[in-house]
Specification:
Order of helices and strands: HEEEEHEEHEHEHEH
Protein name: Purine nucleoside phosphorylase
Distance between the termini: 32 Å
Radius of gyration: 17 Å
CATH class: Alpha Beta
Bound molecules: hypoxanthine
InterPro entries: Nucleoside_phosphorylase_d, Nucleoside_phosphorylase_sf, Pur_Nuc_Pase_Ino/Guo-sp, Purine_phosphorylase, Purine_phosphorylase-2_CS
Helix content: 25-40%
Pathway: Purine metabolism; purine nucleoside salvage
CATH superfamily: Nucleoside phosphorylase domain
Family: Belongs to the PNP/MTAP phosphorylase family.
Number of domains: 1
EC number: 2.4.2.1
Largest sheet: 5 strands, mixed, barrel
Number of helices: 6
Length: 269
C-alpha cells in the first residue's frame, strides 16, 4: 500500500467519508477550524506519513465537520519547506486529501503586501502565482496515477472560483483585492531590494507557502481557490521591521472578515 493510501485509510477509519471541500488554513487563520461543527479532530502526529507542524500559530491537526452546514476537511496548520520538510512532505496532505475525495481546495495564507495600494489587513484573492522556491514538488519520477508529467498551470486558480469569491465578497460587504502571490522559501523575510525585484516581476504579495501545495493540487486535478491575508507590508515599504508578531496581530484583527468570506464562499461550493 502506498503511503498516501495508508494515510487516507487511517483518516477514513475516523470518519465515514471525506467531504469534497478541503481547506488549508495559514498562519493565524486556523481559528476558522474552531467554527467547524460536529468536528472530528485528527492530530497530524497520529496520521501515518504526516510530519508534525512546528510553527507558532499553527495547530497541526485535521478537522472534519460542517461549516454552516457544508461539510469540509480543514488542515489547521500546514507544513512549510523552510521547516526542513521535503517538497514531498509539504504536499503530502494535499495528495491524501485528493485520494480521500477532496476535489476543491481552498488555500489560505498570511502574506506580505508588495503592491503599494495594499494595506495590512486586506484580503486578496490569488489570481496567479510565481514560484520562487527554486524547486518544484513534481521534480522526480512522475506518478502517472496522481497526474500528468507536465501539468498545465495556465488556470491554476480556477476562474469560476475567483469569480465566486469576488461576487460573494461584494454580497457580504467584505473588501477584496486580487493579485499575484509570490512563493519564497523563507524563513528570512525578504530584503527591500528583493521586494522591489518581486514587484518588477509582477508580484502583489509574498509568502512562504501555498505554491507547492497548489502545484500538487493542480497536478492532481483539483480546483483551487487561494486567499491571502495581507498581514504586513513587505520589507522596505514602511519604515518598520517585520515580525511574526505583526503577522499574528493582523490576522487576529481581520479574522472576522476572513471567516465570513471563507464560510460564505464554502456555502456556495
Ligand atoms: N514575507 C514573506 N512571508 C510572509 C510575509 C512577508 O512579508 N508576511 C507573512 N508571511
Amino acid at each position: 500500500m502506498t503511503q498516501i493510501e495508508e494515510a487516507k485509510q487511517f483518516i477514513l477509519s475516523k470518519t465515514d467519508n471525506l467531504p469534497d471541500i478541503g481547506l488549508i488554513l495559514g498562519s493565524g487563520l486556523g481559528v476558522l477550524a474552531d467554527d467547524i461543527q460536529n468536528p472530528v479532530t485528527i492530530p497530524y502526529t497520529d496520521i501515518p506519513g504526516f510530519p508534525s507542524s512546528t510553527v507558532a500559530g499553527h495547530k497541526g491537526q485535521l478537522v472534519i465537520g460542517e461549516l454552516e452546514g457544508t461539510r469540509v476537511v480543514a488542515m489547521q496548520g500546514r507544513f512549510h519547506f523552510y521547516e526542513g520538510y521535503s517538497m514531498d512532505l509539504v504536499t503530502f496532505p494535499v495528495r491524501v486529501m485528493k485520494a480521500a475525495g477532496v476535489s476543491t481546495l481552498v488555500v489560505t495564507n498570511a502574506a506580505g503586501g508588495i503592491n503599494e495600494s495594499f494595506e495590512a489587513g486586506d484580503l486578496m484573492i490569488i489570481d496567479d502565482h510565481i514560484n520562487q522556491f527554486g524547486t518544484n514538488p513534481l521534480i522526480g519520477k512522475n506518478d502517472d496515477a496522481l497526474g500528468v508529467r507536465f501539468p498545465d498551470m495556465s488556470q491554476a486558480y480556477a476562474p469560476e472560483l475567483k469569480q465566486l469569491a469576488e461576487t460573494t465578497a461584494s454580497e457580504i460587504g467584505v473588501a477584496l483585492k486580487k493579485g499575484v502571490y509570490v512563493g519564497n522559501t523563507g524563513p528570512s523575510y525578504e530584503t527591500p531590494a528583493e521586494v522591489r525585484m518581486l514587484r518588477t516581476l509582477g508580484g502583489d504579495a509574498v509568502g512562504m507557502s501555498t505554491v507547492p501545495e497548489v502545484i500538487a493540487a493542480v497536478h492532481g486535478g483539483m480546483k483551487v481557490l487561494g486567499i491571502s491575508c495581507i498581514s504586513n507590508m513587505a520589507a522596505g515599504i514602511l519604515d518598520q521591521p517585520l515580525t511574526h508578531d505583526e503577522v499574528m496581530e493582523t490576522t487576529e484583527r481581520v479574522k472576522q472578515d476572513f471567516l465570513q468570506l471563507v464560510t460564505a464562499v464554502v456555502k456556495k461550493l
